[in-house]
Amino acid sequence: MKLIDRERRMIERRIKAAKFPSTKSLDSFDFKIMPGLNKPLTMELARCDYVDRRENIIALGPSGTGKPISL
User: Fold this and answer.
1) Domains of the chain: which residue ranges?
2) Quick check: 42 and 67 in contact, CB under 8 A?
């Protein structure tokens, strides 16, 4: 339990040091705003299983608009 708490605090410190404007997660993301966004694929990629499978991910799109996800 202590290890999990320490890792959580480490992540919180890094987020704070990055000075992001706000903390967001996929849990609170409204996929209705972007109907073209593939929710099942987005959630799969969030699990990062592609790292263990040694697969590459390429995100393409104009700067500042977010990137559509495709494999």
Assistant:
1) 24-71
2) no
